[in-house]
Structure to design on (488 residues):
């Protein structure tokens, strides 16, 4: 049997729980606002899970689903709609395959409706928009607005046909996840736990969704944060006992002698995966894309909340992008990006609509060259000889000269031809400081005679008031280097 996880999202009081209740045949963890606080306040406070099963031959699924599965189980993930519970919604969005966005037609798109639209756009390829509470409008009002109303008065009195239509649309929007899930089967077992509770006489129940790998009754799983290992006593999938589970399956795992207070949400896995799990101080993302509706700027060194699975952490962001070479194809997209630890990357101050990689750490990332490009410009004050000149304007009085001595610099000379924009470049390097005011000695290749003539009188000082020469120093600094060393 194929399991499809369907997220039911929308603004508070848009009818998400009522829709899930109409669709479902089996209620599971926290379904339909079982929580006493939910009933008291009249809103969903936690993720609620329920399901229904359909025969694949009765609905327009993809041919591969018809061939490989007799039945398809839809697991509905009823997410809270209140703005203060958006973190719970984000945790639920990590495990869903398709989104149903419920819109209250009497109020239209509201604040959390837009937030759920963004979450759905990020996490899923397919979304169904359900217009709820249509029966509140009078039939005449609908006729005035639409020449061919979708729902007739006869249909509004009979919900079963509308539910069948919704299931049909849901079946049409499902892509067969079998190929991707088969790849995940070979990985270590990881199980995203969303609820943990104790049943007297049986043990502690961990309910959640399998992210990767497989497990079965009798195998040992581990809780990485608690450093605890427990043997699986039994497994149930919506009140049906089963022997094993795999990627995408929703299940409850029963383990003995585990304090339910130790785990509310988190990850559990097999012994191999839990032993290999280590604290993560830095993370590389191959591509990040700014949400189109977010109008504020996102800059490097920003502190933002990062949602990974069931965890929420505070991270420092650093954006950088790959340095383009002559061999790079101009038509390459961000999908072709492959991280090379030995390559050099450009530091990005602010993220545009599409950019490169966020990174965070102070120790583990020092081996990566994420560089800021720097340019300093100065002027020739006087020429000592054809191969030496004194430059001012490149540095300040308090500059630490040790890190700049020996760096390559060059002089740009504007040609004197009328209306000419051509320039001549003369390479050199910084030999030493000169005096205490930030001046330096610049060793050069031979200067042209016209430049020597310009600086020849009055002890070598330049006579003309408008500079036609410029000294340029270009270098890079690794943003993760604590010593702030210079790279050329």
């Amino acid at each position: 049997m194929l399991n499809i996880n369907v997220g039911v999202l929308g603004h508070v009081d848009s009818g998400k729980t009522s829709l899930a209740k109409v669709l479902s045949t089996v209620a599971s963890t926290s379904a339909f606002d079982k929580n006493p606080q939910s009933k008291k306040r009249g809103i969903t406070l936690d993720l609620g899970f329920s399901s229904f099963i359909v025969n694949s031959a009765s609905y327009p699924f993809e041919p591969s689903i018809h061939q490989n599965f007799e039945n398809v189980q839809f697991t509905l993930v009823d997410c809270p709609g209140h703005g203060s519970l958006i973190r719970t919604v984000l945790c639920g969005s990590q495990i869903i395959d398709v989104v149903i966005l419920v819109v209250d037609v009497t109020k239209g798109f509201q604040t959390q409706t837009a937030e759920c639209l963004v979450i759905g756009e990020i996490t899923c390829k397919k979304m169904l928009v359900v217009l709820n509470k249509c029966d509140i409008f009078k039939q005449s009002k609908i006729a005035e607005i639409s020449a061919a109303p979708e729902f007739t008065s006869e249909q509004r009195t009979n919900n079963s046909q509308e539910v069948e239509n919704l299931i049909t649309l849901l079946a049409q929007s499902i892509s067969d996840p079998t190929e991707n899930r088969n790849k995940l089967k070979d990985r270590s077992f990881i199980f995203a736990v969303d609820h943990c509770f104790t049943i007297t006489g049986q043990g502690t129940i961990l309910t959640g969704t399998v992210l990767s790998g497989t497990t079965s009754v009798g195998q040992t799983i581990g809780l990485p944060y608690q450093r605890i290992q427990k043997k699986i006593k039994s497994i149930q999938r919506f009140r049906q006992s089963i022997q094993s589970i795999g990627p995408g399956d929703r299940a409850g795992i029963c383990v003995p002698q585990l304090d339910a207070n130790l785990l509310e949400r988190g990850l559990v896995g097999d012994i191999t995966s839990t032993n290999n799990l280590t604290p993560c101080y830095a993370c590389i993302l191959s591509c990040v894309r700014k949400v189109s509706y977010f109008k504020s700027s996102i800059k490097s060194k920003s502190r933002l909340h990062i949602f990974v699975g069931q965890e929420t952490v505070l991270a420092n962001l650093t954006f950088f992008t790959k340095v383009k070479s002559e061999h790079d194809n101009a038509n390459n997209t961000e999908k072709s990006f492959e991280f090379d630890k030995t390559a050099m990357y450009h530091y990005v101050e602010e993220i545009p609509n599409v950019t490169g990689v966020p990174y965070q750490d102070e120790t583990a990332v020092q081996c990566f060259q994420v560089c800021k490009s720097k340019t300093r410009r100065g002027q020739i004050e006087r020429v000592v000889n054809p191969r030496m000149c004194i430059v001012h304007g490149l540095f300040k009085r308090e500059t630490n000269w040790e890190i700049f001595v020996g760096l390559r610099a060059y002089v740009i000379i504007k040609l004197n031809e009328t209306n000419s924009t051509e320039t001549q470049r003369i390479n050199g390097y910084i030999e030493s400081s000169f005096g205490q005011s930030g001046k330096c000695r610049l060793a050069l290749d031979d200067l042209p005679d016209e430049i020597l003539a310009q600086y020849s009188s009055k002890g070598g000082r330049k006579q003309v008031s408008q500079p036609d020469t410029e000294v340029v120093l270009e270098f890079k600094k690794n943003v993760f280097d604590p010593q702030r060393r210079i790279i050329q």
